[in-house]
Amino acid sequence: MALIVQKFGGTSVADADRIRNVARIITETYRRGHSLVVVLSAQGDTTDDLIAKAGEINPRGSQREMDMLLSTGEQISCALCAMAIEAMGYPVVSLTGWQAGFKTNSSYGAARIKSVRTERILAELDKRKIVIVTGFQGINKYGDITTLGRGGSDTSAVALAAVLHADLCQIYTDVDGVYTADPRCVKGARKLDEITYDEMLELATLGAQVLHNRSVEMAKRYNVDLEVLSSFTGRPGTKVKEVAKTMEKPYVSGVAKDKNIARLALVGLPDQPGTAFRIFSTLAKHRINVDIIIQSIGRGSTKDISFTIARDDMEEACRILEEVRDALGFDHIDVTDDIAKVSIVGAGMVHNPGVAALMFESLYNAGINIHMISTSEVKVSVLVDKCDADNAVQVVHDRFFEEYGTL
Amino acid sequence: MALIVQKFGGTSVADADRIRNVARIITETYRRGHSLVVVLSAQGDTTDDLIAKAGEINPRGSQREMDMLLSTGEQISCALCAMAIEAMGYPVVSLTGWQAGFKTNSSYGAARIKSVRTERILAELDKRKIVIVTGFQGINKYGDITTLGRGGSDTSAVALAAVLHADLCQIYTDVDGVYTADPRCVKGARKLDEITYDEMLELATLGAQVLHNRSVEMAKRYNVDLEVLSSFTGRPGTKVKEVAKTMEKPYVSGVAKDKNIARLALVGLPDQPGTAFRIFSTLAKHRINVDIIIQSIGRGSTKDISFTIARDDMEEACRILEEVRDALGFDHIDVTDDIAKVSIVGAGMVHNPGVAALMFESLYNAGINIHMISTSEVKVSVLVDKCDADNAVQVVHDRFFEEYGTL
Fold this sequence. Notes:
Two copies of one chain form a homodimer.
Chain A: E1 3-8, H1 16-31, E2 35-40, H2 46-57, H3 63-70, H4 72-87, E3 92-95, E4 102-104, E5 113-116, H5 119-126, E6 130-134, E7 137-139, E8 145-147, H6 152-163, E9 168-173, E10 194-196, H7 197-205, H8 213-222, E11 226-230, E12 238-241, E13 254-258, E14 261-270, H9 275-285, E15 290-295, E16 302-310, H10 314-323, H11 325-328, E17 332-336, E18 339-345, H12 355-365, E19 372-375, E20 379-385, H13 389-402
Helix pairs in contact in A: 1-4, 6-8, 7-8, 12-13
C-alpha cells in the first residue's frame, strides 16, 4: 500500500473522453489499495486561450491579474476529473492550489514554491479519498494567487511527492518515456527503462521536453522517485532516480538536439583581464542566459569570445552589447542563428574517456563540420550548421546505440 | 466622496468590448472621487458552457465539484476587467470570493452568505484601489468553494454594500430600470424612477427578472439604497428604497405576468381538520414551493384544494401526492400548466380599496376569464388561461397607466 502522486498534462485531459481515461488510470491505482494524490494541468489549449483573451483586452496587463486569470484553467480540469471519478463511484475531492497548501513567493507568473502545508490533503487521504490538486499554482503571503510558470505542474507534483514522502511520483504525458533520441526524428531511438536525475537534467536542458527542469532538480534534491509514462498506451515508462539500477549500462544514455539557439562572437576584444566578466555580467543583468562559452587564445593584443544563447534573446543581446561596445573595446559582433546544438548525455561518460572522440569521429565520417565544443561530466555538446543537425543526431545515435550494444 | 458598490451582469461583460465599456463606467465613477467596489458575474454564457462540460462527463456530479467548476467563471471576468482598468491607467485589484471574505454555509449550489470579512477589501480601498470582486461565490467553514445559485451576484453586491455601509449599490444590467410592465410586450410600459423594496419583491416574485429576490430582501433588511440601471445606455435607472420619494404616486406601480406555473387541484378531499397541513407539509418536505392556495368551502363531506407551483415541479408534485393519495383521501388530481398569473403591484394599494375591482373590471371588459384570485397588502394576482396572459397584462396596464394618470 504505497502513497503515489500522479500528474497528468494538458493533452491527457484535453476533452471529456480523455478525462474519463485519466479517471480510469487513477481509479485502477486506487483499487490496488494505494493512497493517491493527483496533480492536473489545464485542459489542452485552455491556458493559451485565456492568454489570448487577456491579450485582446490588455497586452501588458499585470502578471498578478494574469495569474488570477490563468489559475482557473487547472481548477476547471480538476473539478471535471473529480466528477468523472464520482461517476465511477469512487470517493474523491478536488483542491485548488491554496486549498492544497501551496505557498509561493510573489514572483507572479514564475513563482517558486516555498512550502506545502499538507494538513488538508492528509485529512482527505485519511478519509480514503482520491485527492485531485490543481497544478501550476499557489498563493503568496498576501493571499494572492500565483502561478509557477509554464510546465509548473510537474514541479507541483514533485513538490507534493517530496513533502508527502510519496513512494513514487508518476508523470503521465503524451510520450511513453525518455528516449535515447527524439523518436519522431531518429531511426532506432529506444525508450530508456531508467535514467539518473543528472542525465535527465542535461536532456531537459538540451531540448528533450519531457519533464520540466525545475521538477527534476527538485526530485533530485528531495530524492523523489520519478516515472515518466504515457496516459494513452498503458505501458511502463522511464524511471528517473539517483542511481539507475543497471550499473553496466552504456556510457551514453541519450542524444539530443536544440535548434532554438544563436551564436554570438565578439571579435577583436582587447586581451586584458576582466573582459569576460564585463560581457557576461552585462548580459546577466538583462536576464539573458548564456550556454556554451568559448574564448580563443589571444592573438597579439586581441582575442575573440564566442557564446550561445536562446534564439529569442539574440536581438536584445546584440542591442545591449552594441551599447557597451566602446567600454568593451571589441571590433564587431558576428552573429548567426543558422546553427544547432547536438549533445550526448550519460552518467557513465566521465569514466570512459574515449566517448567524446567517438562522437567527433562519427560526425567526421558523415562530413559534418563542428563549430564549437563544450563538455561537462555527463555530456558533450557540439555546435553544427542547422542543416546538419538531424543527420548529426542520427549518426551519433547509430554510433552509440547500434554499434555499442543495447540498453 | 461616497462609497459605491457597482454590480455588472453577464451580458454587460460578455466580450472584450463590453468589458472595456464596463471599465469606462467604473473609472468614470472613480474619477469623481468615489471609493468603488465592483461585483462581476461570469461572462455571457460561460456558466452554461461549464455546466454543459460537466454534463458531458457526469450529469449527476456532486454539487461540491460543480461549485469548484462554476466559480471559475467570475474569476475570469474579474481578472479581465481588472486588466482593462489597468490599461486605462487606474489602480485596481481583483479578488475571488474567498479573498474578499465571503463566508457561506455549506449548501453547495445554493449557499447563503453568513458573513463578509472586509479586512482585505478595506485595505485595498485604503490604497485607493478599485476593488473588483467575483460575485456568486464564497467559501464554507471547511475552506471549500461554494456558489450562491443563479442570480447570486446581485446578492453578493448587496451583501457587500450592507457590510461596507455603502452609500449606494448600483445594479447594472441589460435593461435600464424597472418598468410598469415588460416593455417588450406591453405598449405604453414606462420606466419607474423609484420603487419600494416591497413592490420590487413582489415584482421579482411575479416574474419581472430584473433583480434577484434574495438581493432585494437583503437590501430591505439592511436598508441598502439600490439602483437598477443599464450598462449600455448611460441613463438614470430605477431607485429601490424603503419609502419612495413620490408619496402621491398612483396605487399601482407595475403589472407583471408569470407563465411558468402549473395549477393542481386535489378534488374530493374529506372535509376534516389537518388536511391542508398534511398536503403542504408533504410538498415542503420535497422542497416544492407553493404560491397561491385556494380552498373551496366544503360541499357535504368533501372539499377541494387548489394551488399553484412552478411548472418545473409539476410532475414531481403529482407523483408525490399520488403516493399519499390513500392517506389524504382525495378522489383525483386535476392538473394544468395551460395557465398564467397576472398581477398588479403597488404599495399604495392597501389604502385604495377599489383597486382590485378595477383590475377585474378591465379583464371582464376584455372577455378574459379569471380562474383564481389571490391578494396581499401590495398585490393582486389572478390566474388566467395562458393564451389570455399577454392581452390581460396590456388591458390591465392600460387601465392603470393610461386612464389613471402618469407616474
